[in-house]
Amino acid sequence: MSVGRSVLPPDHQSPHVSRPVGQRSDTCGRHPQGRCDVIARTQRIGLGTVQWGLDYGVTNSNGRTPADEVGRILSRARERSIDTLDTAALYGEAEAILGAHDLDGFNVITKTPRFGHTPITQQDAEALCSTLERSLERLRVESVSGLLVHHADNLISTGGEHLLDALSTLKAGGKVRRIGVSVYTAAQVDSILARFTPDLVQLPVNVFDQRLITDGTLSRLARLGVEIHARSAYLQGLLLTPASQTPDYFSPWRSKLDAWQKACADMGTPPQLAALAFVCDHPEVSRCLIGVQNLAQFESCLCGLDDVRSFDASAFASNDPAFLDPSRWKLA
Ligand SMILES: NC(=O)c1ccc[n+]([C@@H]2O[C@H](COP(=O)([O-])OP(=O)(O)OC[C@H]3O[C@@H](n4cnc5c(N)ncnc54)[C@H](OP(=O)(O)O)[C@@H]3O)[C@@H](O)[C@H]2O)c1
């Protein structure tokens, strides 16, 4: 590990300092004569890294992103004041690929291994700590901005307190600045909050998956001061794919996917911008994580994002886990 490459970050800006829905990045409406204290949508984007380390994604036919392309994406992120990188020990080579680049100034968040058994034991807690050491080595940093429990059920199940103790110890020792958890459901959030108040929670939000917005989970976390990172704004790229080009599995939802594409066309807004604007315009969301395979995709997510007009997405909301949860997709 190289000395002095800590990515201990400046404090994130408050998730609550954000633009009210429907307003542009430079004015808030209450201060129409000048700039006000709002954060542009682009600065609230973070980069996911799973497709940099694994062949992954229902719409990804190109395989892993080459390391030099990752470098170009990171340079562009730095230019646009995008400061958050989300990775995981389980994302194949992603940590090592990040570690081959200059990470100064980025807030790197990584995750714990998956424990496929219960009860969780003290040995598992030790494995969590040694996996973090390995992550720090691969990332070539001395500390990370965040460590999330990758599988929330590990923390919730019997013995989960061993993992929580390990997280707290790592935080106290300065190897990890914030501790938290990656979740899929409100029930997981309820169980986690019964155990502790995380610094950071990552959860899915997109125009089709508004479940954690409408059931009050986002507001509840925000009220507790938990920083919220939203993932899956593109639902693995489905929101960007013409319905007719989606795998047969998605045929029950093709009319919904068509309606989304048509609404974007009617607004004159590319779906990759509309999908991000929807997530970013929720003031509880501090960072909206996106996965990009290459620089061109990244540019297409940023160019014009701050100028997109907000819109009502309530008609697109679904409660169907077979559509919203990629782990349930049955693809040939
Ligand atoms: N055409 C364009 O212009 C364009 C632009 C931008 C993005 N895209 C495409 O959009 C896709 C990204 O969509 P998104 O940002 O909404 O992210 P996403 O793929 O919906 O969500 C990313 C998260 O999905 C989880 N995940 C689910 N199944 C997984 C698996 N089999 N392996 C690993 N991780 C899995 C991971 O979280 P866990 O770690 O919790 O499992 C990962 O962090 C990419 O394929 C990208 O190429 C296209």
UniProtKB/TrEMBL annotation:
Gene3D superfamilies linked: NADP-dependent oxidoreductase domain
InterPro entries the UniProt entry points to: AKR2_Oxidoreductase, NAD(P)_OxRdtase_dom_sf, NADP_OxRdtase_dom
Top-level taxon: Bacteria
CDD domains membership: AKR_unchar (cd19097)
SUPFAM superfamilies recorded: NAD(P)-linked oxidoreductase
Organism: Denitromonas ohlonensis
Signal peptide per UniProt: none
Protein name as catalogued: Aryl-alcohol dehydrogenase
Region (Disordered): 1-33
Residue ranges occupied by any NADP-dependent oxidoreductase domain in the UniProt entry: 44-300
